[in-house]
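Orotate phosphoribosyltransferase structure dump, as promised
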Amino acid sequence: MGDHDDLRKFITDLAVVHGRVVLSSGREADWYVDLRRVTLHHRAAPLVGRVLLDLTADWEFDAVGGLTLGADPVALSMLHAAAPTGRALDAFVVRKAGKAHGLQRRIEGPEVAGRRVLAVEDTSTTGGSVLTAVEALREAGAEVVGVVVIVDRGAGDAVRAAGLPYRAAYTLADLGLVA
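C-alpha cells r here:
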C-alpha cells in the first residue's frame, strides 16, 4: 500500500468514533472524525505531511498553516515532510483572536506578509474555521493560494464560494461514512 492508502487506514482505525456528537459547526452527527488521533500519532503524522504535499504538488506556496488547534499538527507534518526533499516550507499558527500581551500577534511563526501560503485544516464541515484563518492571513498581507483538508465533511462549496481552490485528501465516502 502507498501513503494515501496507509493514511486512510489510520483514519478509519484510529480517528472515526461512532456515537452522537455536536460538531463545532453546531450540527449533530452520529460519528466524529477525531483527526488529532492521527495527526499527533508517531506513524500517521508523517503520512499526513506526505499525502497533503502530494495533493498540492501543483500549487506554489512557501508557508502552511491555519486556525489553531486543528491545523497546527497538519502544518507541522507538512513542514517536516518537505524538509528531507530540500523544500523550504514554513509553518504558521493563526490564533482565534489576537493576543493582548507580548507582540500581540494573531499569526505566530515566520512572517506571512507578501508570501504565498496554503491554509490547512484537519477536517471541515462548514468551512468556518479555515475561512476565519484565510481572513486573518489576507489581513496580514499573505496571498492565500488555496485550502486543503485531510477529510472533507462538506466545506468545499463554502470555500470555493469564497474564491479559493479547495482539495481534500479524503471524502466521507472514501472512509465509508455517510453524511
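The chain has one domain: 44-173.
lmk if u need the other ones
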